[in-house]
Design a protein that fits this description.
70% helix; 16 helices; 400 residues; globular
């Protein structure tokens, strides 16, 4: 379970982590062209194990079930076809190979694991990420949680790691509600996961996690309990305003943005100029794009970095990167599949009072929202792997 759900973390620690070379344009361009040795070792093994496990007679029967699965098949075929019109055919082929390997591993888990076991796999992956990052920070002497400027990174960039910890937090909440002997352990781990999430100071991950937890609680609780919780929050806000006055807004802003109010919210931390630059490239090839996950070639990276005077390896928006890769057709299909899966999971949760589908719905919403300001949809990332797993589980496995 650990290997299938975490093939990309172990070898990304220490000096090979992508964000450690982000400040050096030459190294970043080399990283775009060459990739990372850890992924080149682990992903093929993941795909092979996934392919072998698909031929085992155990597990659920896989079949196309409904429009969600049909749209996912269309997206996969469209992504594969993008190699025909891609600017960089070799880069697109490599990225498509990564997609195929991830999908094989995800499909194997969807076939053989229940939704509860998938939630446990997310929990294990998040815990492993936390341990690796904490050990690395302690060994390197960079763990300073009391420093206001400190951001908890390690295995990856703090923003990407924040998304992992958000998943860790959500899975721990779901498991803590189950009547098992490990309930206290899961409850304690929920607090640890929240602390680690806050330490990353990743605003997108934190706010998305808060919203996803709210959706999960809404699906799990009765309407009276939801209304009572809303009234309690309103009363707390009113009492806080009476005590703090206009300073309440300042405290709320600092809390929501995790103390990073010194950066310009008006420009979304310099993302808007980047998105405007990407829009110019999108306007040139809106239908087909530049090839699946192949827009950020060394040429495009160098050109956009020079224009904006800062280095980046993505659009800091998963959907912009998606649309740059496969155009409006492919991106539209993928987003529609995500939304349909969310709706289906939510409906099944309410129809059968299922906590498993409730947490699946919450996790899908979390990944959907967090990619509005970060970009991991196309990467071999923990969120991407479990996104594929849940989409395939909902789309190709019979509901139970």
């Amino acid at each position: 379970m650990i290997f299938l759900s975490q093939p990309y973390v172990v070898f990304l620690t220490h000096k090979n982590a992508a964000y450690r070379v982000a400040s050096d344009p030459a190294k970043q361009i080399a990283a775009v062209q060459e990739g990372f040795i850890g992924r080149e070792i682990c992903l093929p093994i993941l795909g092979i194990i996934g392919a072998i496990s698909l031929f085992r007679r155990t597990g659920e029967k896989l079949s196309v079930r409904g429009i969600t699965a049909g749209i996912m098949v269309f997206f996969f075929l469209w992504a594969c076809l993008s190699v025909v019109w891609a600017d960089d055919t070799m880069l697109t082929a490599k990225r498509l190979l990564v997609l195929i390997l991830l999908c094989l591993g995800a499909l194997a888990i969807a076939k053989h694991f229940s939704l509860l076991e998938i939630t446990e796999a997310i929990f294990v992956s998040g815990a492993l990420t936390a341990v690796i990052s904490l050990v690395q920070n302690c060994v390197m002497g960079t763990f300073h949680p009391l420093d206001p400027q400190y951001r908890f990174g390690g295995a990856m960039h703090p923003n990407d790691q924040g998304i992992c910890f958000g998943l860790f937090f959500l899975s721990a909440i779901a498991l803590a509600e189950r009547p098992t002997r490990k309930r206290c352990l899961y409850f304690f781990t929920t607090i640890i996961a929240l602390i680690f999430l806050i330490l990353t100071k990743s605003r997108a991950a934190f706010l998305s996690a808060v919203f996803a937890v709210s959706i999960y609680k809404y699906l799990r609780q009765s309407r009276k309990a939801v209304i009572g919780a809303i009234m309690f929050i309103i009363i707390c806000i009113c009492v806080s305003y009476l005590l703090l006055g206009d300073d309440l807004l300042s405290y709320i802003q600092k809390g929501l943005f995790l103390g990073r109010t010194n950066q310009s919210v008006g420009t979304l931390n310099s993302r808007l100029p980047l998105w405007q630059e990407c829009a110019m490239y999108f306007s040139r090839r809106p239908i087909f794009g530049y090839g699946y996950n192949a827009f950020w070639t060394a040429h495009h990276y160098a050109r956009i970095s020079a224009d904006l005077d800062w280095g980046m390896g993505s659009a800091h928006n998963g959907y912009i990167d998606l649309i740059l890769g496969v155009g409006v057709v492919g991106a539209g299909a993928f987003i529609i599949a995500m939304i349909l899966a969310i709706v289906k999971a939510g409906a099944l949760s309410m129809e059968f009072a299922s906590s498993d589908y409730a947490i699946a719905c919450a996790i899908l919403i979390y990944i959907l929202l967090s990619n509005l300001f970060e970009s991991v949809l196309l990467l071999p990332h923990m969120a991407t792997f479990f996104l594929y797993t849940l989409l395939l589980k909902i789309g190709f496995v019979k509901y139970r």
